[in-house]
Specification:
Layout: H1 4-18, E1 29-31, H2 34-40, E2 43-50, E3 52-54, E4 59-70, E5 79-84, E6 97-99, E7 102-111, E8 114-118, E9 121-123, E10 132-133, H3 151-165, H4 172-184, H5 189-198, H6 203-215, H7 219-228, H8 236-249, H9 255-266, H10 272-285, H11 291-297, H12 303-317, H13 325-329, H14 345-349, H15 355-358, H16 362-376
Parallel strand pairs: 5-8
Antiparallel strand pairs: 1-9, 2-4, 2-7, 3-6, 4-5, 7-8, 7-10
Length: 382
Amino acid sequence: MATIDSRIGILALTMPLLAAVPTAKAGPVAMQPVAFLTGSADAIVLGSAAGTLQFQAPGAFSLQVLRVVKGPASIAGTTILVQWAPPSPGIVWPGAGFPATGAGIWFLKGAAGGWSFLPVAQGSVTFDMTYFPAPMTSLPGAYAYSATAPVQDKLASELAAAIEAWDGSFKLQFDDLFSGDLEDLKSPVIHTLDERLAASSSVRQQVLGLDGLIIGGDASALAKAVASDASFSKYGLERGMLLHAIRELFRSTDPAAIATLGQTAQSTSAALDLRRVAAHALAAIHTSATLPYLATLLDSPDAILRVEGIGGIGAFANSLPTQTPANTASLGYLQFPAKGVYKTEDTMAHFAMGPKAIESNESFYLSFWKAWWQQNRASLGF
């Protein structure tokens, strides 16, 4: 699943939009990671539900199964009963119910006498948030799979087809997949989906496709995202996910990628939040190619951009490894080697990262790293 840190980062960028998520009542919504659902389910099916359930009361709905992704192939083409006790949306009249209808991808557990339900979203949610909506049709050729394909590839194909068929309206369970859950399926199908979405006529789908490609380190996708950023402004949640992917997950050392990050960070025409996330990604790579761009940020009128310049140059000089989600969680990105080409007592004394560490005495760090760059740029080839 996506790491807790990555999900917090996305929420920080998108909280105003998540406040408007339609739920049965105001309350917590927990999305279950698709890799967890895949491993926990005894059956995953494409099917159409019908029935009526009562809030916070055990009941069952019927599910007409079209295809079986995981589980007994014998239930394909049959109608099964699925047991579930929906959560309460708050104060309701005794016996109040709601329709349990919809077509899509469902996750099920074996239960006495039949099947029980593993909802995609838990908490105070409407029924249409408990499964992945999908049309009851055959798969497009790009996502066709054989009966012997791994479950992860089958599910990735079904989800990919469902996402492409989606009308582009806000759907939390689809957007949540792009926080890293799709990549956790470890299926090559996801790259196919990302490429197709990035070329979609739907702007929302373009953003999500570029998000996936950027998570995978695609330099051309980064360039397209930067060039198209102004057209993404209407899609705040998806754009927030895209910015998060650049800031926290894009760590390509490809020269074209570094040039795009550096030019974006320096740009006076790009949106400031985009410039800041580009600068953060650049500062986290810690290669010599990033230094000319980081050095220009030391003179930026924006304090956050100056902070990124200071931290990025200092991390390179002290031979720190590229900062990734994995070594951030373990603090491995702060493990200094005993020796480094440019590492000295002075570079260690002037090392700092982040606004809290730097802004209280910015001139101390800023003057040192400006001088360090001028002293060492020739030996670095600049």
